[in-house]
């Protein structure tokens, strides 16, 4: 027959094992959650980079439009082809530009209307960027909290 003390030792070990197993399971859940949040943060950071690049392009376009409206008709100008490549052209109109309005459709607009439209796009992108930054901040906080929890569990399991 097993004595009362032996039963308590066996039960005590079972409780320790159960607690350790529970902590290991919790740690696994936290580590999986950490991976998911890190992937989400990477995705948000990529979106932030795209938005910031687009904002820089818009600012450059707005400045170029401002410059063009002050140039004289017939002046030789450089037109960007992208990737740092240009061709020479003669300015024939400094009152209107052709702008993309979406879905591959471009229309002619006055300099002021085009500038206004681009400024509106810029403001929308700034709002999007602010929202993405806020989301990234919140996810960073969650990651930090999960790291703290996982470190605590690891310490408990080792100690």
Report on the architecture of this protein:
The chain has helices at residues 4-69, 111-158; strands spanning 76-82, 85-90, 96-102, 105-110. The longest helix has 66 residues, at 4-69. Helix 1 runs antiparallel to helix 2 (111-158). The radius of gyration is 30 Å and the shape is rod-shaped. It has one domain: Helix Hairpins, CATH 1.10.287. Helix content is 72%, strand content 16%. With 159 residues, it is an alpha+beta fold. The strands form two sheets. It has a two-stranded antiparallel sheet with strand order 1-2. Strands 3-4 form a two-stranded antiparallel sheet.
- Morphology call: rod-shaped
What are the secondary-structure elements, in order, as H or E?
HEEEEH
Gross CATH architecture: Orthogonal Bundle
Largest sheet: 2 strands, antiparallel
* Order of the strands making up the biggest sheet: 1-2
| Mean pLDDT over the residues | 90
Strand content: 15-25%
| Helix proportion | over 70%
Determine Rg (CA atoms, Å).
30 Å
Number of DSSP-assigned strands: 4
Number of domains as seen in the coordinates? 1
For the record, the CATH class is: Mainly Alpha
So how many helices?
Answer: 2
CATH topology: Helix Hairpins
N→C terminal distance: 33 Å
Helix/strand-derived category reads: alpha+beta
Stretches with pLDDT under 50, minimum 5 residues: none
